[in-house]
């Protein structure tokens, strides 16, 4: 099971510049979390503080019972082995090939032999779609490829905690969808606690169990995804819609005169550039690929959310109830492709023993690696006989009709 990360009263400054203060949140064991916030609010600094690369002035970060803000260097070294980190800039060694970059944590932290290292490295290289590029240097590949190589390196130790700083930056929308799916599949497979820093609203809407947001040196909110997505807070609404009208400015906070001028422009029907999507309408969360194990954290997450439900705002409660009803419906409609939702639908969450039993049952499932799933799908496709007669009939029918539905 993944590891809980408990942050309490954390404050970080560089010299006289305070970045954020009194940040408290818990990344529940094995759940997928996203951290949003305008550029420069200190999301990357937060990630680096979680792994002890930066030192806060106040507060604690408790991982596996150890407060990493005050433990010894030796303890910190051990705790760091639990982490896989994708840094915002990829942080690859420029003079090493992708292969050596990805192999680095294995050579540094394990006694594995080179043939075992090769097996693991090549598996991760394939997982992130970089097969054939492993011999290249970081300077010889695209930004999106560097990002994926960084992710492969973050995954080689099968980490208990995965931190991803903007995994989507530099990636096209389709590759972003693949990487997001990969994170969900990995979560199902190894139950790792995941924190994704992102500006990508699509990711925020469909991937995490919980979402937080940093703004004006504070954690505005952290909770179940439905809570942030249905929030009425102006800063959250502006961020989600990507509109220039609102409390978030280009560099600093907006003053009253600017805010008044914007209100007048809005009243005059001038666009602030944002989408008019209704984010309070919750869309389905991405589920593990068919063949992947049940996502155990989903079971724990639902139990947690149901327990905290009465304390959440009304609209978040309504959105969570609607999400649950929709998930149960999907489980009934397509039981073979949404094992996690089926497990959720079949669990009596009013009975703690039943919740535990559902998790234990998930644990005993056979684990198939995502690459196997893809290979199986490809094999199936190859062995499917092609119905040439049907194609011929369709082509013949379309002759002279000017269009074809074949
Ligand atoms: N090592 C450092 N020394 C001094 N200041 C720093 C350091 N690292 C970051 N900062 C400052 O901390 C602030 C937050 O930076 P950070 O990179 O965490 O922002 P961010 O939220 O990740 O932004 P973005 O979305 O653009 O990546 C910035 O003002 C930055 O200049
Ligand atoms: Mg950053």
Automatic annotation (TrEMBL):
The keyword ATP-binding applies. GO terms for molecular function: ATP binding; ATP hydrolysis activity. InterPro entries: AAA+_ATPase, ABC_transporter-like_ATP-bd, ABC_transporter-like_CS, P-loop_NTPase. The keyword Magnesium does not apply. Coiled coil: none annotated. It comes from the Bacteria. Pfam families: ABC_tran. Residues 5-241 form the ABC transporter domain. Keywords: ATP-binding, Nucleotide-binding, Transport. This is Putative ABC transporter ATP-binding protein. It comes from Gordonia sihwensis NBRC 108236. The lineage of its organism: Bacteria, Bacillati, Actinomycetota, Actinomycetes, Mycobacteriales.
